[in-house]
Design a protein that fits this description.
mainly alpha; 56% helix
Length: 71
């Protein structure tokens, strides 16, 4: 997916359901922060996959930017 995204802001030409779906899937890698998702610390910890978060760090940064702009 990182390759498909490249340096673009969205997966397709504009913000679509495809972007939303990828953002949702990334929640299982690292829940979004910034007050966008209210999770207790223990729940947030359970929903983390640190190895995957490191591997997909650029996608998580992209996801966080999507949340900042569209939430």
């Amino acid at each position: 997916m990182e390759k498909r995204l490249g340096t673009r802001r969205y997966l397709l030409d504009d913000f679509t359901a495809a972007d939303i779906c990828l953002c949702l899937m990334l929640q299982a890698v690292e829940p979004v922060g910034g007050g966008f998702l209210s999770l207790k610390p223990a729940t947030r910890e359970v929903w983390r996959a640190p190895d995957l978060a490191q591997r997909f760090a650029k996608l998580l940064e992209w996801r966080d930017a999507i949340y900042a702009k569209h939430r």
